[in-house]
Amino acid sequence: MKKAKMSLVSEFTSAKIDERIYGSFIEHLGRAVYGGIYEPDHPTADEDGFRADVIEKVKKLNVPIVRYPGGNFVSGYNWEDGVGPVELRPKKLELAWGVTEPNLFGTNEFVKWCKKANSAPMMAVNLGLRGPEEARNLVEYCNHRSGSYWSDLRRSHGYENPHDIKLWCLGNEMDGDWQIGHKTAYEYGRTASEAAKVMKWTDPSIETVLCGSASRDMATFGEWETTTLDLAYDKVDYLSLHIYFGNHDNDTPSFLAKNLKMDEFIHSVICICDYIKAKKRSKHNINLSFDEWNVWYHSNGDYVEKWSTAPHQLEDIYNFEDALLVALMLMTLLKHADRVKIACLAQLVNVIAPIMTENGGACWEQTIFYPFMHLSNYGRGYTLDSRVVSPKHDTKEFTDVPDIESIATMSEDKENLTIFAVNRNMEENILFDVSLLDFEDFEVLEHIEMSGFDIKAGNSAVSSPVKPFKAEKPTLDGKELSVNLKPLSWNVIRLAKKK
Questions:
Q1: Which CATH class is domain 18-378?
Q2: Is 428 known to be catalytic?
Q3: In the chain, where are the structural domains located?
Q4: Residue range 157-183, pLDDT digits in tens
Q5: Radius of gyration of the chain (CA)
């Protein structure tokens, strides 16, 4: 049997994990809002029209922040259309996705939903068709207590206390020519700099996220980050990254190695941020917001009727291999937790999402729901310096791909240790030996596993066969842990200090 090994020392922490790395995303796209989180006629709907069955599942994922309202949508969105009496709100042609937006759900409803879902809003402002003034006005509406036009307007809408939104995205994917109000790097950098300035003058407690390039494959990538950071460096706190992976060629070994591209992407952007920091002789550190990431390809090319409302759009039905890659991608983010402070699985409900619903009917968990849930709930505290020695293999697209990818996290009180691992090998069991070098008197609580499924198997509203299960506990002999990792498996091994 092949073997892999890892050594862990409690004092060798890599980073403190910012809980916002387990964020997600709700855009006015498809059925993410209407029929997703908001459906007043649904049997589980509460007094605000929010689906209680969806909120229950969001709570299971333990999502600390949710980005809103876009995405491409935000670049054509007038936030004023989504506040005030619902009966007075206008229906608008939504150009980003070619649908009609009824504006029944807006900023205040979203903030209220977040509170019920134990989450916090990550608000995006429109820097496509609009600019610094409208962005500043939204900050005043949301965060100023009273005594000004926009704060008093909020109070007149029934929200006496400010929303106190701390995290703000300065537009979305502005180097993409598909973006409403697409800009050059210089145009966007100047606009974002001025927007961030007046937003922070309005509320100095907020943090802002500068748009990075829409993709590492864009011709603008690199130069875009360099130019925009040079213009806005001291006004912003984070730089955004977006990435999606697909398996159009049905090449599972290469597909399950794609997180290596994500790792390389992160390294590149960190280098750019630190170059601008050195160039400016600045003490200010720019961290990363990976605020769109996921598997996305099953629904590409779906037909949507022009100007329909809340159509079935981008509703990928995920399979088991997708779940494995989602686990690998989230572990990659954790390996960079020293600089990746925010991340958003895109998206949360119905649209390329872990949670699916039927209008008027069931709510169910996709395959990708489970690794995200495990990491979000058990991957808190600190990442450990957990380098893995593993057998490797080559694929059509990659060389030297480790069979075993793993990361370990430790709770802040050092009482709990969790080892996450994926065995990418499609055929062979691998014996994974972990040395717990200074973890005294620990015991194994459980081994959660996902394995043995057809790689193309998925879940549905009527049948959900692809789920985690309790596996046999690994052997722990003193400080030596030994676990058999099955081929194509997701593994969560939880340990705790003996009481």
A1: alpha beta
A2: no
A3: 2-10+384-497, 18-378
A4: 999 999 999 999 999 999 999 999 999
A5: 23
